[in-house]
Structure formats: structure tokens, C-alpha cells
Amino acid sequence: MNCKKALITGGAGFIGSHLADSLTDAGCKVVILDNLTTGNLFNLRQIEEKITFYEGDIRDPEILDKAAKDCDVIFHEAAVVSVPQTVQNPVGSAMVNDIGTLRVLEAARRNSVKRVVLASSCAIYGDDPVLPKNENMEPKPMSPYAVQKLTGEFYARLYRNLYGLETVNLRYFNVYGPRQDPSSPYSGVISIFLTKAAAGQAPVIYGDGSQYRDFVFVQDVVRANLRAAVAERAVGKFFNVGTGGFIRIKDLWEMISGLAGVSAKPEYKPSRPGDIRESVANIDRARSLLGFNPEYSFEKGLKITHDWYRKKQTY
Ligand code: UD2
User: Catalytic: 186?
Assistant: First the structure.
């Protein structure tokens, strides 16, 4: 990769820290800006000598200017990522997800950064019954989170048109892997199920468990970011980042309990309000314009993740 210096906002978090590992491996100087509300310095301990770390907030233009100085690319991962949290606090979360994103784009403009790659979400599709989801579908946001991510996409494209800043939006599907924090009830289902399995406990399944998700391994998401940072034809576009496959939640527990050798039966509770039943990505656009091909089968990614949670390296 051709990048000399990159800023990762939210770089101490789950996805951002994996991205930092890959960028430092590729010989790129890495700067991280993270306010450590959900990020964790433990995720960076293996590269702490190689990176520049700023503890600070994306709403603060001064620290953003320091962090963005001389960077050719910014990967914008910092966000309030919990949908229910944005439902409880639409204004506070908009200050981070919208104003914060705008501040990041402004810092890129002021510091002549060439390209910004932004984390968006499949949440913007809402509960459209058309499957798999493709990028030509009309967005139907069902939560403040989805509106905020969609707004970020609009701002990014506006900055391309108004100021010539190269921007690329990546619509992540359900990302999983080592370092995903399982500590909240709204954490990713895989991190919760693996933690339960490691403790020999039964999980809760909301609904009948036949709902499904397109789970994409974090290393594949990192590779999509690296491609998005350089691909000529990516500029000004948005891409689904998933696998095109899906796993039902009840089958997920079968696989995890099998791996862990746990026989506990799940407790079934009513569906969560606003829960999407089915989510799977069409990734044709990412394949053709980013050259993105997921490398991790679900079985392989789950095994790596399971081994990591079993060792309980953190949390
Ligand atoms: C994911 C993203 C969210 C947003 C959304 C877009 C995560 C953590 N969240 O939410 O940010 O992008 O996609 O639609 O990646 N479940 C259980 N038991 C549990 C936990 C979850 O049955 O203990 C179910 C849950 O009701 C849902 C499925 O598992 O049907 C996936 O839940 P999730 O919280 O991992 O992710 P999701 O798709 O709601």
C-alpha cells in the first residue's frame, strides 16, 4: 500500500486497532485518535512503540489538526456504534456521529489529506425485504444511528464535490472477531455467545432464532479498508462490506456450543424492538471496484475468534 502516514479515528477500538496492526505491518506511519470511551489501549499494546497516539475527541478541531497533519489518508472509525444508545440519546450521538464526522472531514480539508475512508453501516437499509441488500436500494433508516451514518455518507460525497476531497464509504455488515468487547447487552452477538460458552452458560436468543445475519470477519473488513484507501474507481462511492453468506442465530449457538463443548440450551425471549429479521449483503460492487473478496470462511473466522475468547486476553 502506498500510504506514508495514516490517521485512524477510533483506532483503539475493535476494528480500528486491527486496521492499525495491518497498516504498521505495511510500513505506514500510524496516528491514532481515540477518546477511550469504548476503545482500549490494551488493543494497541503490540504496536505501541510504532504508533503516535492522541487521547482526544473527534469533536475537538485542535486535536484533529494535530493528528491529521501530514497524513495522506484518514480512516474514520470513531462513532457511537450502539443502535439502542442512539435511540436513547439521539442528540448526544448525533454530536459524535454527525458533527464529529463533519469535523473529521474539515480537518482533512484543512490539512490537504488526499482521501478519507468512512465506516458506514448496513443499518441504512432498514428492514427492506429485498435481499440481498445492494447499494442501489433506497435507504430506509429506522434508527438515529442509521440516519447519522447516512448523513455521514452524504457529507462525504459533498466534500468530494465541493472541495475535491476523495471520500469512500464502507457499509459494514455484522463484523466479528478478536477484541470485540462483549460487555454490553448490545455488543455483537458472537462476542456475547462466545463469552457465555467460555463460562459454560446458556445465552439468550431474542425471537425464534431463525433471523439471520451476514457475519464478516474483522480481517476482511481491514482488507476492504486498505483497498478503499487506494482504489481509483472507489472515490465518491459507497460499498457493502459483507460476505454474501448468512448464518441464523440459533445455528450460530449450535456452532459455538459445539466448538466450546457446552451443552447448555438457550433461553428464548421475545424479539428486540426494531430487530431486523434478515440481513445479507450483495458484494458485487466491492468485488468489481475494490477487488474485495472475503478470505475468511465463517468456520475459519469463528474458530480464530473462539480461540481468542477462550484465552480471555482482555475484558
Ligand atoms: C448490527 C450492529 C449495529 C448496526 C446493525 C444494522 C453490532 C454489535 N451491531 O446490529 O451497529 O450496524 O447491525 O442493522 O454489530 N441476539 C440474540 N442474543 C443476544 C444478542 C443478540 O439473540 O444476546 C440477536 C439479536 O436480537 C439479533 C442478532 O442476534 O437478531 C444480531 O444482533 P447484534 O446485536 O449482534 O447485531 P444487529 O444486527 O442487531
Answer: no
